Amino acid sequence: MEQEDYLEEIYNLFKENGHIRISDIANSLNVKKPSVTQMMQRLKKEDCLLYEPYSPIKLTEKGYKIGKSVAERHRVLAEFFTILGISKQIQEKDIHGIEHSLSETTLKRLKEVSAFLKKKKF
Fold this sequence. Notes:
Layout: H1 3-17, H2 22-29, H3 33-45, E1 49-50, E2 58-59, H4 61-83, H5 88-98, H6 104-119
Antiparallel strand pairs: 1-2
């Protein structure tokens, strides 16, 4: 699992709960706590979050921006795939493979196409 996946999940959990713990991330991503702890240490070194054992996890400005960006890409892709009638199961698999490499230009165009298709009741 990539660092961006963790930052996206931490961002989403923060929006939902206002606080994040190792166990929240482990449960949400269906991974073991030691794996989450390792990633938190790595993300701390990258200045993406503030982390101390047994304390709530907080995103830095850098981590927040990355998490928000990945979450937005995920949302736009999910909306587009839903318009196309793709099942949630297939969407999640495809989104995971695309969201990390999607350019801002492509993201913008997907938003525009989705808005157009919604208006046309595609």
